[in-house]
Amino acid sequence: MKKTRKQVCVIGLGQFGTELARDLAKHCDVLALDNDDERVNTISGHVQRAMILNAKDFRSLSSLVTSDFDEAIVSLGESLEASVLCTLHLKKIGVRTIRCKALNEDHAVILESLGATEIIFPERESARRVAAHIINPNLLDFVPLAEDYRVMDITPPASFIGHSFIDLNLRGRFGAFVIAVKDSTAHRFHFLPGPNYQVRQGDVLVMIGREADLLKIRDEK
Question: pTM surpassing 0.70?
């Protein structure tokens, strides 16, 4: 039985929030929120739901976002007050994972103290990717490849644990390859693991394949 689609809320529809919401909506049920009606109207045809909302108002936010949401992304980095209040409200609502865009390090510290799960610096991360490609133009990086191929980090399903790659037959079943195994406990990589490698609890599989096939692996039980 496949997992149900993730319920994700994106709050703040600037350039980053809009692009993120559009991409997430391909695989998740996305609720996009912003206090600007033009931004909401622009994205309404690309996500499952889009609503005009002042995220600083707890009553309004809690009427749409509940603890049933898997994740919320607060993309209100241009307004410290709005992002802080919104993060505080989401924590109070009980959203399990809250990812927040930050203006600077001080802003990040405040958001983390309020319970943000992850802090996002989009410009900084983009700059690092560009610098890495300038230094090494052949660097693969974790970006979309041609013809719907992707490189993804995948937490192995429970049915994979204790089995070798040759037993799992990932190439035959899914057309996918494991190019590395990340040990999440020791923060180490095992590159190009052999067919007899047995998947362990805590492993993260770095895989290459078509996006649809990789998502099938993610949804395995």
Answer: no
